[in-house]
What does this fold into?
Amino acid sequence: MPRTHIYDAGTFGHFLQQHCGIANMRQLPPDVRSFAIRLHANPEKIAPNSPMLPLLAEALKQPTEAVRAFTKGEPMTDRFLKKIQNQMAHGTVWRGGQGKVAKTTKVAAKQPQTVAVSPKKKGARDYKPRSPLAKYLWTEHQLTIHDVSEKLHVKYMQMQKMVMGLMAPNHPLVVKLAELVRVPHHKIASYMKLAPMNESVLKRVASQLGLPVRRGGGRPPMGKTPELKQPKNGKAVVLYSGPVKVVPEPTLNGTGKKKGAYGPHNKLRKQELSLRQAVRDLVMTCNLTTMQNQDFTPPLPIAVLYPVLQDYLEKNHVRGNILVDPRFATYFDPPNAE
It folds into this structure.
């Protein structure tokens, strides 16, 4: 029996108790219950021309004017009035709740909610595995993801990654799952999609989980049992017998190993053209003076001496500002000066 509320005199709730014999608004039909509660609590928000008033009066078996007398809000506009009428026609009138539109009892009764019980596991809800490994664990061993995570003492999200194949085939948890269901390791490893872990990563993951390291693990071929390979420390000596290619030493004239290649004694060929021409002129002048048995060379233009000295200073890591720029004499002249 619903609890009886004591409503203040002059309110819509007091009218229901006095004239309709309704002690609690929860006794009203679901399609008008929320509207009646709002009419009692907030009458200033209920319009006198609301389409819900005739529906509420019909449910209470009272005249519409008697119910309309409790409204204190402003009349609805034609647009909002048409909206409420469409909601009533489609059974989508708001019946309370946290911002959700609830349908009427007739519409909701067409979609009954039932909970199926799995015939394989008594008392469990309908379990529908999606991944291949989850289907194998359920069909062959009647184990859900929660069951395996509890038995392996790992988190559910980590077990979820395993059943989706997002682990290495030599992961310690894959080995532990194979031991749990008592199947060969390659049976569970065949469901993994990632590449095997190397030795360092495998040791770190095993130490974090507190599990032993399975060496030589990996994804085996179909229909074959993987072999456990023990690592062996040591060095291998390889003896080679065959023709040995002899590399000739570069000649003294700087020709290099092959014809046309730059040798270690003739790096001048890689320099700029102006520097090579200046060196050539300087060498020719020095040779001519030597062959003529003279003590002084003839005067040389600055264009010949400057590149050679600049390259020499750069190769010996001398400051670049030792030499004055050859354009210093005309640097401050007007642009159009001859």
About this structure: DSSP finds 14 helices and no strands in the chain. The first helix runs from residue 12 to 20. Residues 162 and 192 are 8 Å apart (CA to CA). Residues 98-109, 114-123 have pLDDT under 50 and may be disordered.
